[in-house]
Structure formats: structure tokens, C-alpha cells
Amino acid sequence: MNFAMWKKALTVIPNVSKEEWEKLDIISKWLISTRAAVLLMTLLSAVLAGLFAWHDGYKINILAWFILALGLVLAHASNNIFNDYTDYTRGVDKDNYYRTMYGPQPVADGLMTKRQHLTYFAVTAFLALLCGLYLIITNHNDPIIWILLGLGAFFVLFYTWPLKYIALGELAVLIVWGPFDDWRRLLCAGSCLELERGLASLPYVLGVTTVIFGKHIDKLPVDAAKKIFTLPVLIGEKAPAMPSWA
Questions:
Q1: pLDDT digits (tens, 9 = 90+) for 201-217
Q2: CB-based contacts of 46, cutoff 8 Å, min separation 6
Q3: pTM score, whole prediction
Q4: If pLDDT is split at 50, 70 and 90, which confidence band does 2 have?
Q5: What is the pLDDT of residues 183-205, one digit of tens each?
Q6: How high is the pLDDT of residue 177?
Q7: Among residues 34, 43, 32, which one has the least CA distance to residue 9?
């Protein structure tokens, strides 16, 4: 077990050669493949959900909170793996694309085969699904959780394509890390029988959305050339001037 690499992969996205990759344990490979350093944003959203539940006067169900946090992190990890796979198969991660500059793209860099990459995705997504099913069972088959699970699966599978290609990727991030958090707080209490009003998670989700927006700004000219119409691509490097009457 390469604990030093675990720590490194949780703080940065490490570049590794093929030789270094072959010597790593499976957990190190999983952490690098999922870009584990950015999963902290999702873990913090689960922490906020627990704090919201506690603030609202609920008695926190620690096990429910843990399963919720684990499921969210695994779902985010699944999306990161599938994101790389989809971009690779669509020919995006070629010609020194920005994504391959700041960290390894396992398939594009020849670190693993497409089949191995899909296996990582399938196992990670399956574990995330199990967490969701546990919350459904322990909350008496509540339809709200089924809806949340379905929406979560939709965004995991379709964020990279087509949502990111039609300027809906940023909106998807805003929805997943925003209003969803106001429902997650109730799962931490082991109950989804009522919904709290308000968007207490809004300040946090703006930070997460800014992260993805910044990444898309960095890739603006390349994405435009590849016809990936993220929101920064649509707005342009310089936003149009406001009309004089505005």
C-alpha cells in the first residue's frame, strides 16, 4: 500500500509515468483515476447537509449521514471516471488537450485500457447505487429519495455528453450542489417526510460552480474548436457590453 501516494492523490492530481503506474496499488490507481483531490467539494456538501439537519433541530443519524456522504463521493467519482471515458471515445482528449496537461487521463495516457476504465466506473457506480438503495430502504421507500437517486444517476451519466456540450454543464453543477443539499439534510436525520424551505446551500454551490466555470474558461479556445459549447464558450472571452439602457 502506497500511503504516500494516497495522501498526494487526495491533495493534488499527480502526474505518473506508465512505469510508476504499474507499481501502484489499486487504491492509488482509483484515487488518481477519480481525481480524488476534487472529491473534497462533494464531501463538504455532505458535511453541510449534516450541519443543516442539526441546525434545523433534527437528531442526526450518524449511519445515514455516513452512507449519504459515501454515496455522494462515489457518485462524483463515477462521474469523473465516465467523464474521461466519454471524452476519450469522442476524441476530445487528443492533440495535447488541456485535460491531459494538468493530470493523467488514464486511457488517453495508456495507463489502462478502455475495458479496465469502464470496470472502475461500473464498480464505483454500483457502490454509489447501493448507498442510495440503503437510504431508500431505511426511509420506507420514500418517493422523494427515488427522485433524487434518479436525478443523480441522470447527471452522472449525461453531464459529459450532452449537457456539457450545450452549455448545461454549469447548470447541472448548480443544481446538484445547490437545491439537492437542502434535501440531503433530511436524509441525515433518517427522514425525508418533509422538505425545508430556502436555499441555505446557495453560498457553497456558487463556489463549486465557480470552480467548474474556471476550468471551462481555461479550455475556452480549445473547447470552441472542438464544438464543446460550455457557458464560457457561449459568452466568449469578453462578454458583450451591456446596452446603454440597462
A1: 677 778 888 888 888 88
A2: 65, 68, 69, 72, 73, 184
A3: 0.84
A4: confident
A5: 555 555 544 333 344 456 677 77
A6: 76
A7: 32
The residue written with cell numbers 447548470 in the block is 171
Helix (H, G, I), strand (E, B) or coil at 191: coil
Q: Give the other-Cβ count within 10 Å of 133's Cβ.
A: 15
Kindly give, in sequence order, each residue whose CB lies less than 8 Å from that of residue 55, ignoring residues fewer than 6 positions away.
none
Find the mean pLDDT for residues 50-75.
83
d(CA 208, CA 170): 10
**Residue 240 confidence (pLDDT):** 66
Contact, 46 vs 68, CB < 8 A? yes
Q: Are 24 and 5 in contact (CB under 8 A)?
A: yes
- Residues 204, 45 contacting (CB under 8 angstroms): yes
- Residue 150: is it exposed, middle or buried by C-beta count within 10 angstroms (0-12/13-18/19+)? exposed
Helices (H) and strands (E) in the chain, counts: 12, 0
Q: How many residues does the chain have?
A: 246
Classify residue 156 as left (phi > 0), alpha (psi -120 to 50) or beta.
alpha
Distances (CA, A) of 240 to 92, 151, 209, 217: 28, 34, 21, 16
166: Cβ contacts below 8 Å, ≥ 6 apart: 229
C-alpha torsion sign, points 42, 77, 166, 223: positive
Give me the pLDDT at residue 198, please.
44
Which H/E stretch holds residue 69? helix 62-89
Among 14-18, 49-53, 138-142, top mean pLDDT goes to: 14-18
